[in-house]
Amino acid sequence: MFEVDARGLSCPEPVMLTHEAIRDHGDEQIKVLVSEPHTRDNVEKFAKSKGKNVSITEKGDEFELIIG
Q: Which positions ≥6 away from 54 have C-beta within 8 Å?
């Protein structure tokens, strides 16, 4: 599983990192870590726009998105 640590980053950077991960590792699951609700929503919308399934887990003040 490829991991993107986008915690503490502001949009659009987490979405750009997710785009690169999907482009380069789209055949495997990708874990994206973010720290803001709006960033979680933006990454989720982007991944779904690329035809990916997304599951989200809240871990304390952070979010873990599994894209597959």
A: 44, 47, 48, 65, 66, 67
What are the per-10-residue average pLDDT scores of the chain (68 residues)? 97 97 95 97 98 97 97
User: By 3-state DSSP, what share of the chain in percent is helix, strand and coil, each rounded to 5?
Assistant: 40, 30, 30
- Distance in angstroms (rounded) separating the CA atoms of residues 16 and 27: 18
User: Using CA of residue 1, residue 17, residue 37, residue 45, what is the dihedral sign?
Assistant: negative
Number of H helices and E strands in the chain, helices first, is: 2, 4
What is the C-alpha to C-alpha distance for residues 41 and 39, in angstroms, rounded to an integer?
5
pTM: 0.95
Show the DSSP H helices in the chain as ranges.
Answer: 13-25, 37-49
